[in-house]
Write a structure and sequence with these properties.
This protein is of the alpha+beta class and about 90 residues long. The chain contains three helices and four strands.
Length: about 90
């Protein structure tokens, strides 16, 4: 299972010994704090549901958001392109 640092591109903490790093992750999983992490997954993101499963190992609340609708300008077609529908909300 990927660590949260690998998932979101945070520093790798190369200066911390592996054993101490594992202990740090375990300690973080035991924190009983009242906070919430929001993860927005944009279209064509490399974040997969397999990678997101590591969040279940932590006690904090989390919410995962995916794109339902988008409209953006494409330089390739020189026009605005739409994906999805606002009716899906």
């Amino acid at each position: 299972m990927p660590q949260i640092t690998q998932l979101f591109g945070f520093p790798t903490y190369d200066d911390i010994e592996e054993e101490n790093l594992k202990q740090l992750y375990e300690t973080c999983r035991m924190i009983k704090a009242n906070y919430k992490i929001i993860v927005s997954i944009l279209e064509d993101s490399s974040i997969t549901k397999e990678k997101l499963r590591c969040l279940q190992s932590y006690s904090m609340s989390f919410e995962i958001l995916k794109t339902v609708y988008k409209r953006e300008f494409s330089v390739w077609t020189n026009s605005k392109e739409k994906m999805g529908s606002l009716d899906d909300l």
